[in-house]
Amino acid sequence: MEKTLAIIKPDCVRNGNIGKVISKIEENGLKIVAMKMVKLSQKDAEGFYYVHRGKPFFNSLVSFMTEDPVVLMVLSGDNAISKWREIMGSTNPEEAKDGSIRKSMGTNIERNCVHGSDSPESADFEIKYFFNSFEILF
Ligand code: CMP
Q: Model pTM?
């Protein structure tokens, strides 16, 4: 079973879409094996998105990710990384497929409702960044 990190971002939390996102995850056969709601500090967000440091959108992304709470989850299942990315849709909601989370609930390329790890290496880093082994239940 593969694991991936999922984040329900501040826009999605504020818009009351936590339940819809969780339903999509479960309807598509992924299992939530860890979950918590937190408010990220600037340092938390900068460290999490360190690969984007220096990009033009970095400061705005960090500010967005710290403006309201987020829901952090570890998802488990066959091909969980690619499956969750398929369910989310493309980074830019305008380019995301019909039926995807970002198409139906995202606002723009930054405020795109959800995050998912993009490779086994980033999943490993991202899961360990937010969860210790006692918090991952299956
Ligand atoms: P995420 O999948 O969390 O990974 C990096 C995030 O940076 C991305 O979703 C968006 O929220 C944001 N992002 C990526 N590209 C851009 C961009 N061109 N302009 C603004 N924000 C971006």
A: 0.98
